[in-house]
Amino acid sequence: MILSSNLAIALLTFGTFALTTRALSPEGLGLLVLIEAYGRMFDLVLRLEPSQALIRMAMPHRDAPHAPPFRRLVRFGLLLDAGGSVLASLTALACLPLLSGWFGFDAGTQSLAALYCLTLLIPAPMTATALFRLFGHFGTYARINVLTAALRLGATGALLAAGGGLEAFGLLLCAMSCLDRLAPSLWCWPLLRRRAGPGLLRTPLTGLLRENPGLWSFVVTANLNVLARNSTRQFDIAALGGFLSPAELGLYVLARRFAMLVVRIGAPMQLVLYPKMCELAARHKAGPLARFVLAFLLAFGGMSACGLAAFALVGRPVVALAFGPDFVAAVPNILIQLAGASLLLTGTIFHSAAQALRRTAQLMAVSTLTAAAFFLPIPLVVPAHGALAASYLSLLAGLVWSGGCALIVAHALHTLRQAPAP
Fold first, then answer.
1. How far, in Å, are 116, 130, 243, 297 from residue 381 at the CA level?
2. Is residue 358 helix, strand or coil?
3. Cα angle vertex 378, ends 381, 109, to 5°?
4. Per-residue pLDDT tens for 273-311?
5. Runs of H (alpha helix) within 135-198
6. What is d(CA 118, CA 132) in angstroms, rounded to the nearest whole number?
7. pTM score
8. Residues 43-78: b if buried by 16+ CB within 10 A, e if exposed
9. Euclidean distance between CA atoms 81 and 122, whole angstroms
């Protein structure tokens, strides 16, 4: 269910983007993604996500959801979602006049950006997401995401048919932001009331930290890890906004969407590989684990090479047909970013193996190095060489990520071979 829904969401999202490019020029597309990137930058940095901590620390109490320890954890997560969302929204609104010049917002786009920032006042649904996973309702959560992706596609098609411009698509962005934040929480609330009972929000938090030692440090560390690992995909638009024109940024974003389609389709691979890798690592089977990793690397490498060769042959007519002739100039960027996405997914195979071998600290270092490889050269190469340089930096980031994770796994396997079997 998770794999099929992830594929469906990826295709629906890509279809939505194709319709958006049909309605907007590269410049309009660049401004639209800048509006979203501005708000998301504050939301991701200032809002601490509690989902990993909730899943880990509420797991022992899952069978007693009426008990105060479970209710305290859930209330803590809800308050963290609400407080972080308000902080992110108000800070983004306060900084908007100062940063509008960097993002290239005129009066109209600044108003749309302010409206999008207001949607961030709605509490993020991270606690609801954690509860769906904790209670095993993966299918329900997957259906919510597929439904919202389908609604976004339908609304985008309607705006295209009506001849909507940047303002209309900006309002749709704000409406879908509200829906994305509201739908999981509204869907989860009846489930939570059935499991935990009424009056959850009145549960006192007294004793929360005593019952869950290390809660705050776990929340902060988990968020730092996620920010470091995903920074090149979450903050690239904001970082490039001051160095690229909106039209150039539109071409970069199209290439990025191709890369993200590959990443999103291939990301569930970790869900499939990780349990087997953990089993082999726990049994000190270094040889079988190495062969398991190598087999998937060869299979994925072959598919990636075939995909890149096929796009090199037919990419231009496909882009012209799907996105319009104005976006054909993005084809070189797409090829480079597809290669970078393939490296990122190769790194995901190594990443799963490194996690199974308990090399979390080293993975954090590789994530930080990957982010530095992407962001630090931006002021040096992007002003002179434009969007193509930004795409090459994405390729460099993929190379650093994949190579770093591979070195960690190689060293960990060597150590495992030397260790006595349990």
1. 31, 41, 10, 32
2. coil
3. 115
4. 777 787 788 788 888 888 988 988 888 888 888 889 999
5. 138-162, 166-196
6. 27
7. 0.84
8. bbebbbbbbbbbeebbeebeeebeebbbbbbbbbbb
9. 9
